[in-house]
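Hi C.,

You asked whether I'd gotten around to modeling the 198-residue construct. I have! Everything is below, sequence then structure, no commentary in between.
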Amino acid sequence: MVFVILKIFLIYKYLIMKYYYPILSFLFFITMVSCSPSKRNYSYHSPKKNISRENQIRQLSQPYDIRNEVVVRSLKHVGRPYRYGGKTPQSGFDCSGFISYIFSEAGVPLSGSSHEQATLGIKKDYEELQAGDLIFFGSKDKISHVSMVLKNEEGDMEVIHSTTSSGVRIDNVSKSSYWKGKFLFGRDILYPLEWASK
Protein backbone atom coordinates (compact mmCIF):
# COMPACT_ATOMS: atom_id res chain seq x y z
CA MET A 1 0.00 0.00 0.00
CA VAL A 2 2.78 2.37 0.97
CA PHE A 3 4.59 1.45 -2.20
CA VAL A 4 1.54 2.33 -4.32
CA ILE A 5 1.13 5.74 -2.62
CA LEU A 6 4.81 6.49 -3.08
CA LYS A 7 4.58 5.54 -6.74
CA ILE A 8 1.57 7.84 -7.25
CA PHE A 9 3.40 10.70 -5.52
CA LEU A 10 6.45 10.27 -7.73
CA ILE A 11 4.33 10.22 -10.88
CA TYR A 12 2.50 13.38 -9.71
CA LYS A 13 5.81 15.13 -9.00
CA TYR A 14 7.17 14.09 -12.36
CA LEU A 15 4.15 15.51 -14.18
CA ILE A 16 4.46 18.82 -12.31
CA MET A 17 8.14 19.10 -13.16
CA LYS A 18 7.56 18.23 -16.77
CA TYR A 19 4.52 20.41 -17.58
CA TYR A 20 3.62 22.91 -14.86
CA TYR A 21 6.91 24.75 -14.47
CA PRO A 22 7.58 25.17 -18.19
CA ILE A 23 4.06 26.54 -18.65
CA LEU A 24 4.46 28.86 -15.66
CA SER A 25 7.83 30.07 -16.98
CA PHE A 26 6.35 30.72 -20.41
CA LEU A 27 3.48 32.74 -18.99
CA PHE A 28 5.89 34.78 -16.86
CA PHE A 29 8.05 35.49 -19.92
CA ILE A 30 5.03 36.64 -21.97
CA THR A 31 3.93 38.95 -19.15
CA MET A 32 7.36 40.56 -18.88
CA VAL A 33 7.61 41.13 -22.62
CA SER A 34 4.17 42.70 -22.89
CA CYS A 35 4.88 45.07 -19.97
CA SER A 36 8.34 46.14 -21.11
CA PRO A 37 8.60 49.44 -23.08
CA SER A 38 8.90 49.01 -26.81
CA LYS A 39 10.37 51.31 -29.40
CA ARG A 40 7.71 52.72 -31.68
CA ASN A 41 8.29 54.43 -34.95
CA TYR A 42 6.21 57.52 -35.53
CA SER A 43 5.94 59.14 -38.91
CA TYR A 44 5.20 62.81 -39.29
CA HIS A 45 4.29 64.83 -42.37
CA SER A 46 7.03 67.41 -42.46
CA PRO A 47 5.97 70.83 -43.71
CA LYS A 48 7.40 71.90 -47.05
CA LYS A 49 8.88 74.96 -45.43
CA ASN A 50 9.82 76.00 -41.93
CA ILE A 51 6.92 77.38 -39.92
CA SER A 52 7.85 80.53 -38.04
CA ARG A 53 7.44 80.73 -34.29
CA GLU A 54 4.79 83.39 -34.84
CA ASN A 55 2.71 81.08 -37.01
CA GLN A 56 3.18 78.16 -34.58
CA ILE A 57 1.69 80.27 -31.79
CA ARG A 58 -1.21 81.26 -34.02
CA GLN A 59 -1.91 77.64 -34.91
CA LEU A 60 -2.14 76.77 -31.20
CA SER A 61 -4.51 79.67 -30.54
CA GLN A 62 -6.92 79.10 -33.44
CA PRO A 63 -9.32 80.49 -34.34
CA TYR A 64 -7.91 83.94 -35.01
CA ASP A 65 -9.06 86.76 -37.24
CA ILE A 66 -7.36 86.00 -40.54
CA ARG A 67 -8.91 89.04 -42.18
CA ASN A 68 -7.45 91.37 -39.60
CA GLU A 69 -4.14 89.55 -40.00
CA VAL A 70 -3.77 90.27 -43.70
CA VAL A 71 -4.92 93.86 -43.25
CA VAL A 72 -2.38 94.57 -40.50
CA ARG A 73 0.43 92.97 -42.50
CA SER A 74 -0.44 94.92 -45.64
CA LEU A 75 -0.39 98.30 -43.90
CA LYS A 76 3.26 97.80 -42.90
CA HIS A 77 4.25 98.11 -46.56
CA VAL A 78 2.59 101.40 -47.49
CA GLY A 79 5.18 103.41 -49.42
CA ARG A 80 7.07 100.43 -50.85
CA PRO A 81 8.08 101.12 -54.45
CA TYR A 82 6.47 99.50 -57.46
CA ARG A 83 8.51 97.03 -59.47
CA TYR A 84 7.26 94.94 -62.36
CA GLY A 85 7.45 91.28 -61.34
CA GLY A 86 8.45 92.27 -57.79
CA LYS A 87 7.42 89.92 -55.00
CA THR A 88 9.38 91.02 -51.92
CA PRO A 89 9.77 94.16 -49.81
CA GLN A 90 13.43 94.32 -50.80
CA SER A 91 12.74 94.38 -54.52
CA GLY A 92 9.45 96.23 -54.46
CA PHE A 93 6.07 94.86 -55.56
CA ASP A 94 3.84 94.71 -58.55
CA CYS A 95 0.12 94.35 -57.82
CA SER A 96 -0.13 90.55 -57.74
CA GLY A 97 3.29 90.15 -56.10
CA PHE A 98 2.17 92.36 -53.23
CA ILE A 99 -1.04 90.37 -52.69
CA SER A 100 0.82 87.06 -52.87
CA TYR A 101 3.41 88.23 -50.35
CA ILE A 102 0.87 89.49 -47.80
CA PHE A 103 -1.28 86.37 -47.88
CA SER A 104 1.66 83.98 -47.84
CA GLU A 105 3.15 85.77 -44.84
CA ALA A 106 -0.19 85.35 -43.06
CA GLY A 107 -0.10 81.60 -43.70
CA VAL A 108 -2.25 81.52 -46.84
CA PRO A 109 -0.03 80.35 -49.73
CA LEU A 110 -0.80 82.44 -52.78
CA SER A 111 1.01 83.09 -56.04
CA GLY A 112 0.41 83.78 -59.68
CA SER A 113 -0.66 86.75 -61.75
CA SER A 114 -3.77 88.82 -61.11
CA HIS A 115 -5.52 86.81 -63.83
CA GLU A 116 -4.71 83.55 -61.99
CA GLN A 117 -5.67 84.94 -58.59
CA ALA A 118 -9.03 85.92 -60.05
CA THR A 119 -9.93 82.22 -60.35
CA LEU A 120 -9.55 81.50 -56.62
CA GLY A 121 -12.16 81.53 -53.88
CA ILE A 122 -15.76 82.60 -54.36
CA LYS A 123 -17.02 85.53 -56.41
CA LYS A 124 -18.62 88.50 -54.63
CA ASP A 125 -20.51 91.59 -55.70
CA TYR A 126 -19.23 95.05 -54.80
CA GLU A 127 -21.57 95.46 -51.82
CA GLU A 128 -20.61 92.05 -50.36
CA LEU A 129 -16.87 92.63 -50.24
CA GLN A 130 -15.17 92.88 -46.87
CA ALA A 131 -11.67 93.33 -45.43
CA GLY A 132 -9.24 90.77 -46.84
CA ASP A 133 -11.19 90.12 -50.04
CA LEU A 134 -9.51 90.64 -53.40
CA ILE A 135 -10.85 93.14 -55.89
CA PHE A 136 -10.03 93.06 -59.61
CA PHE A 137 -9.87 95.85 -62.15
CA GLY A 138 -9.56 96.04 -65.92
CA SER A 139 -11.69 95.90 -69.00
CA LYS A 140 -14.34 93.37 -69.92
CA ASP A 141 -11.78 91.38 -71.87
CA LYS A 142 -8.81 91.55 -69.54
CA ILE A 143 -7.90 91.71 -65.84
CA SER A 144 -5.14 94.26 -65.42
CA HIS A 145 -4.93 94.89 -61.66
CA VAL A 146 -5.63 93.38 -58.24
CA SER A 147 -5.91 94.99 -54.84
CA MET A 148 -7.13 94.01 -51.37
CA VAL A 149 -10.10 95.48 -49.54
CA LEU A 150 -9.29 97.22 -46.25
CA LYS A 151 -12.87 98.16 -45.46
CA ASN A 152 -16.24 98.38 -47.15
CA GLU A 153 -18.77 100.17 -44.99
CA GLU A 154 -21.96 101.81 -46.21
CA GLY A 155 -20.66 101.98 -49.76
CA ASP A 156 -17.34 103.47 -48.72
CA MET A 157 -14.57 101.11 -49.88
CA GLU A 158 -10.85 101.46 -49.22
CA VAL A 159 -8.29 99.20 -50.84
CA ILE A 160 -4.55 98.71 -50.59
CA HIS A 161 -2.48 97.86 -53.65
CA SER A 162 0.79 98.38 -55.44
CA THR A 163 0.31 100.88 -58.27
CA THR A 164 2.70 101.68 -61.09
CA SER A 165 2.61 105.39 -60.21
CA SER A 166 3.02 105.34 -56.42
CA GLY A 167 3.90 101.84 -55.26
CA VAL A 168 1.98 100.46 -52.27
CA ARG A 169 -0.78 102.88 -51.31
CA ILE A 170 -4.33 103.13 -50.01
CA ASP A 171 -7.14 104.35 -52.27
CA ASN A 172 -10.82 104.98 -51.77
CA VAL A 173 -12.44 103.20 -54.69
CA SER A 174 -15.84 104.69 -53.94
CA LYS A 175 -14.51 108.21 -54.43
CA SER A 176 -12.27 107.47 -57.40
CA SER A 177 -13.87 107.63 -60.80
CA TYR A 178 -10.77 105.97 -62.24
CA TRP A 179 -10.82 102.84 -60.06
CA LYS A 180 -14.57 102.59 -59.78
CA GLY A 181 -14.83 102.73 -63.56
CA LYS A 182 -12.42 99.81 -63.92
CA PHE A 183 -13.99 97.60 -61.23
CA LEU A 184 -14.79 94.08 -62.46
CA PHE A 185 -15.56 91.85 -59.48
CA GLY A 186 -14.29 90.67 -56.11
CA ARG A 187 -13.15 87.28 -54.82
CA ASP A 188 -13.14 85.89 -51.29
CA ILE A 189 -10.31 83.40 -50.79
CA LEU A 190 -10.52 83.48 -46.97
CA TYR A 191 -14.08 82.16 -46.61
CA PRO A 192 -13.13 78.43 -46.38
CA LEU A 193 -10.32 79.20 -43.92
CA GLU A 194 -12.67 81.07 -41.61
CA TRP A 195 -15.01 78.09 -41.42
CA ALA A 196 -12.13 75.63 -40.98
CA SER A 197 -10.83 77.56 -37.96
CA LYS A 198 -14.18 77.55 -36.12
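If it helps when you're writing up: The domain at 65-196 is CATH 3.90.1720.10 (endopeptidase fold (from Nostoc punctiforme)).

Thanks,
B.
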